[in-house]
Every structure is written in C-alpha cells, then in structure tokens.
Amino acid sequence: MTSKPVSEKELEFQDSYLARELFGPQEHTLELVRHKLGVDIQTRGSQLVLSSQDPESLNLACTFLIQVYEMLRQGHALYGRDVDHALKYLQQNPSGDLKSIFQEEVFAVSNKKTIAPKSLNQREYLRLIREKELVFGIGPAGTGKTYLAVAMAVMQLTRKSVRKIVLTRPALEAGEKLGFLPGDILEKITPYLRPLYDALQDMLDPKKLQEMQDTGLIEVAPLAFMRGRTLNNACIILDEAQNTTPEQMKMFLTRLGHDSTAIVTGDITQIDLPDNQKSGLIHARDILSGMEEVSFMHFGREDVIRHELVAKIIQAYEEHNPGSG
What we know:
The chain is an alpha/beta fold. Helix content is 42%, strand content 16%. It has helices at 16-23, 28-37, 55-73, 81-92, 98-102, 120-131, 145-158, 185-203, 206-214, 246-253, 280-288, 308-320, and strands at 7-12, 40-44, 47-52, 107-108, 114-115, 134-138, 164-169, 218-222, 234-238, 261-266, 294-298. The protein has a six-stranded parallel β-sheet, sandwiched between helices. The protein has a three-stranded antiparallel β-sheet with strand order 1-3-2, with helices on one face. A two-stranded antiparallel sheet has the order 4-5.
C-alpha cells in the first residue's frame, strides 16, 4: 500500500519577538499543534516549516498560527488554556475568525476582571443574556454557564443597568430546612453557596465585594429565602437549578419583577433530588421552550473550559450512561 505524499508549507514571521511569543514557552503552542493535528513543525529562528500527510490538518495548523500571530501583533495575547480553546474553535469552524471569539467580545466585568467567551456557545449565551428577560444555561460542569452569568450580573451592576444582584441555589443537602443546622444563618448557608462566592471573589476586590454585600447591592441566599418576594431592577441568578422541584422553579420564576433579568443554570445529568422527583429545570424546559421572551442555551462537552481532562471524563460518563436527564 502506497503511503500518502507529505505536503509542506513554510511560515515566516517578521517580528522575531512576537514569533517567540507565538511559539510559547518551551514551544508549548507548537507542541499543542503537533499533538492535536498530527503536523510536524520545525523551527528556524522566526520561520516555521510544517509538514503533514493530511493537507487539511496542514492548512488548519497554518491558519491557526497565522491568526494567533496577527492577534499578538494587534496587542491581544492568548494565555494558558485560551490557546487550546482557540485551536478547538478552528477545528470546529475551519473558516472561523479567532478575533470574533477572543477579541471583539472582550468586556470589562469590573476594574479587576476582563472576560472573553471561549466558544461560539458562550458567545451566544452572553448575547441572549443581554437581549432576553429569562435565559436558561444548561450543560455540564466547566462550560462557564454560571461564571459567565455572574460576570454579566456584576457588569450590569457596575454599569448601573440594575440596582441589585441576587444569587441563589437550592441548599439540597440541607433539604432547605436550614433551622436544624448548627450556627447562625450565614454559617448554615455558606457551604452551599460557596461556588457563587468564588465567582464573585474572582471578579471583585474583597473590600468592594464586602461593601456591596453589606449595602444589599449583592445578595447571596438559598432558594428558600426567595419565597414571597418580588425583585425589581435586579439581575437574579438561580444556580444548580436541576435540583429544584417544579414547585420551587415556579416560585423562583415568579419572583421576576420590572426591569429585571433572570438567569437559570444547571446540569440535567446531575440531578440529586430524592425519590425520583422530576427536576424543575427539566419541567421548565418542557413548558417554556416556546415563549419568545425565554431562551435556552444548551452547552456540550466541547464547551468545557476547565481542563481537557474534564471534557474526557464527561464524555466517558455520557457513553457509559447515554440519555441521562
């Protein structure tokens, strides 16, 4: 059997400093391209010689390196996992433009944090949050659905688009019966709300965050505390919504007041409700999907941004237990 001929291309980058930045520390970026696309890359100063038996992979490698170099030349660097995400994006969208994902959509959440979407689904999710009154972000862990929701809420608050942020999630492990737990109310609910605090602390200076909580601009509370309230001019986020009952979900959704936005996030493959109760998230998806004011953003394992291993773990579980949720 005759092997395929090897195709070869040369790339030369005029700015040797930017070329070194493009190649990455210990040629990390080049090694990623070699590993992901099966392309051989040889370096000669600021010149690259790429070769492969697969012309499509070779062209994709060249497109990726040229686009990343151009972003560097325009002052926008990719760091850490962003490089991996950029390559994944072009693999899924060979004619795509990395700037449309990593540069044009960059926005300042606060003085401390700047954020850019890492996938087309994340970009669409942010657009929906800006335009719709109620958005559901559904998908596995690590897809950024909660983090981006909190980021948009903080940005709206700092820009005075809303007067208040309310972050909530069901304290399922406590059965929402917080009175039976030891300690004061803050000590009782903090473990269940820790992921929301983590996101806030990543975006706001500790002093500023504490001040916003003390003055009621930011409220983090268990879902049980939402009953009987109407929230006007606020951004309200319900996290871990797969662990709400249909009654709890209805209660939450009817808290929405004038000039407010609600964002509901959850993973329907991770339902922990007892006695095979139906998830309020699935119930809401079934009955609200046709409403014009409501949007559903479904994330997949291709949107996982925590670590490549997380995406592989999710895939393994899905293959072991297909159709869960």
